[in-house]
Amino acid sequence: MKFWKKALLTIAALTVGTSAGITSVSAASSAVNSELVHKGELTIGLEGTYSPYSYRKNNKLTGFEVDLGKAVAKKMGLKANFVPTKWDSLIAGLGSGKFDVVMNNITQTPERAKQYNFSTPYIKSRFALIVPADSNIKSLKDIKGKKIIAGTGTNNANVVKKYKGSLTPNGDFASSLDMIKQGRAAGTVNSREAWYAYSKKNSTKGLKMIDVSSEQDPAKISALFNKKDTAIQSSYNKALKELQQDGTVKKLSEKYFGTDITE
């Protein structure tokens, strides 16, 4: 009889201990889960057409921010769910609760900070001015009054406006270069990294890239969250920090950009 009493007490103690452990884990994840669009999934909004950040290869979504999104979600104990969306609808989609986070080469700006929260920056994007090879344009100061392509609402567009270029909206990098070759625009402001990635697989004959880092500071690229989703943001940043410390982010940068652009 004493044996069974001891056995039952031991089992009860183990059960209580195990339950307490489970409760603490659930409590830690419940705050995140309560903010998610879909429980157990990190719903990530991105374009899916902007190489090397996110694009399709053999009809499969891939790219720097796709691989990073998967790695972060895994660290958070979640499954990554990507929702390809046109740029013009991405940030609005976040605001309306369509996504948990947007990862789409998003630049930190004071205007965005008023409505949304940022993650810790994971790369620094340097601006580039791409023009015809025989163009007289040598710097951003030379784009004044000229037709310059950039995506609507992007930091690239802000640079065009700052230097008084005539903005021609187009968020697709490849078609922007085609427009320049066809003489429909004098150039485009985009990222140096996008140019390097495009040049790996496509001909850039007739074009030249001008690094304008001396005129425009690099942009800090981060994930974007709704102000109310502080638990998601905190968990994301914790996971990202671990991936930065173990070298994962640097390796992904070298894989997709050919160099380390995390610093």
Automatic annotation (TrEMBL):
Intracellular or extracellular location(s): Cell envelope
Keyword tags: Signal
Cellular component annotations (GO), alphabetically ordered: cell envelope
Primary location group: other
Signal peptide: 1-27
Coiled coil (UniProt feature): none
Occurrences of domain Solute-binding protein family 3/N-terminal (ranges): 41-260
Superkingdom of origin: Bacteria
Family matches, as InterPro entries: SBP_3_CS, Solute-binding_3/MltF_N
PANTHER family hit by this protein: L-CYSTINE-BINDING PROTEIN TCYJ (PTHR35936:SF35), MEMBRANE-BOUND LYTIC MUREIN TRANSGLYCOSYLASE F (PTHR35936)
Family: Belongs to the bacterial solute-binding protein 3 family.
Listed name of the protein: ABC-type amino acid transport/signal transduction system, periplasmic component/domain
Source organism: Limosilactobacillus reuteri
